[in-house]
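Annex B. Sample input.
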Amino acid sequence: MNTATAPKQKADDLRWPIVAAGSLAIASIVLVGAFRLSGTPISTPDAAAVTTLELRFLDRDDGSIAVVDARDGRTIENIVGQNGFVRGTLRGLARERRRQGIGAEPPFQLVARADGRLTLIDPSTGRRVDLESFGPTNSAEFARLLTAADKGRLAAGPRS
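Annex B, continued. Sample output.
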């Protein structure tokens, strides 16, 4: 056996898989770039809104957050303790409001969609948070507010 051709043989054996992998990577980059430059929207359209709840989130002296139904001023829940996801989401939206000089008065919209997704929208800044993107446990924290609001409306009875 000729030992001089053995390293060359190994290099030739590896050349084609490397060329194929490189070609695949370049083709992927070109296709993604072409798709992005075409202007085709990447996101899927929102499903129809099933329920929209207008909410205000008010900081309390004890560190809790009062969740208030903006339509009737009724407190539907008090968020006590860390509850990191709700607080973090609200903190990000409040930061944008402060940056634009908007106070806490305009309500947020919590939208439940026909496909089961939840969206928190700040109409005053145009910002939105698609809550299902953060997993079912975090999304459930906001879904609980919809349930609490429905229970409160049933307990209050019909409005005249």
